[in-house]
Amino acid sequence: MNFWRSLFFFVVFIEKSIAADFCYEDSHCSPNSWGNSFAQCRPRTDSRQSPINLDSKMTRNESLRPLDLQGFDAAPSGNWTLKNNGHTVMLDVNGLSVSGGGLPGSYQAQQLHFHWGSSSTNGSEHTVNGRRYPMEMHIVTMKTTDQNLTSALNDTSGLAVLGVFIDVADQDNNNFSAISDLVASVKYKGTTLPISPFPLISLLPVRNMSQYYRYHGSLTTPPCSEAVMWTVYEVPIYVSQKQIDAFTSGVYYTEDGANKALLRNNFRDVQARASRALYASRDARLLPDSSTPLSSSHLSLALPLLPLLAAWRL
Ligand SMILES: [Zn+2]
């Protein structure tokens, strides 16, 4: 009897563990079913979920100046840890803080991680006018007045996440090699690698730090807590295809073993923005002139070209 009782509780325990986990590509735990286990992931009319599409319907906010990034210029002392948690490749960091740029307080950096697609698809979480970049990096910071993560997740501005788009270029990005060269060492779920801290500014679009978008949203993974002040930088950093392939073709969401499966497309689809405000920093540039709707300006440019385009088709 005791055996069957133990077995029953063991099965219940396993089922609960599976239900409480999440994934991207298996239907039983993919983003569409996150809401079954995590209430805040369920779409509601008043949701403030992330990511979103960043489009021209935004408001310029002249008071949004560059964020004050403390400790990013130097290599902090101590150790950082790179790890594969089965959902992403994550770098636990310390010694860095973020304030200014309209953020309501000072925030301590906790970790950064990546979202990517596959060998044939892009995988950023935010999109810009519907365009998805190859990858996106998130630097997750927690408000210093929140005692712990639980308290931060219950604070509507408990976390500030810096989002950086990653685009492809011909050349390797030597700064990015500090991560991409080490991804192969954490290819399986549960593996970790201590690494020496380096100046984190080297992973940011340093010449364009005053250009960003700001909105109030959520974690893009369960429990989808609506506790995030998002800063998404407008200009991407550039890395080589080989450096992107290190993620799309070299990371597994399974542990080392026979049934290994690649971690791909670890991004959540864009969520409804509804009536939420989306702000552009003082220096953001990609906003089309609000007096000239994007569609009509494109049309007026395209019209004189129509005979040419027709000729090309012949
Ligand atoms: Zn993320």
Describe this structure in words.
- The protein is of the alpha+beta class and 314 residues long.
- It has 2 domains: 1-37; 41-288, Alpha carbonic anhydrase (Carbonic Anhydrase II, Roll), CATH 3.10.200.10.
- 18% of the residues lie in helices and 25% in strands.
- The chain has 7 helices and 16 strands.
- It has helices at residues 2-19, 34-37, 149-153, 177-180, 241-248, 294-302, 306-313; strands at residues 53-54, 59-60, 67-70, 80-84, 89-92, 97-100, 107-116, 127-128, 131-132, 135-143, 159-169, 192-195, 212-217, 228-233, 237-240, 279-280.
- The strands form 2 sheets. Strands 2, 3, 4, 5, 6, 7, 10, 11, 12, 13, 14, 15 and 16 form a 13-stranded mixed sheet that branches. A 3-stranded mixed sheet has the order 1-8-9, with no helix packed on it.
- A hairpin with a 4-residue loop joins strand 4 and strand 5.
- The radius of gyration is 21 Å and the shape is globular.
- The N and C termini lie far apart (81 Å).
- The model is unreliable at 7-19 and 290-314 (pLDDT under 50).
- The structure holds zinc ion.
- Zinc ion is lined by residues 113, 115, 138, 220.
- Residues 113, 115, 138, 220 line the site of zinc ion.
- InterPro entries: CA_dom, CA_dom_sf, Carbonic_anhydrase_a-class, Carbonic_anhydrase_a-class_CS.
- It catalyses: hydrogencarbonate + H(+) = CO2 + H2O.
- This is Carbonic anhydrase.
- Its cofactor is Zn(2+).
- Residues 1-19 form the signal peptide.
Give a quick precis of the structure.
The chain is α+β, with helices and mostly antiparallel strands. It has 7 helices and 16 strands.
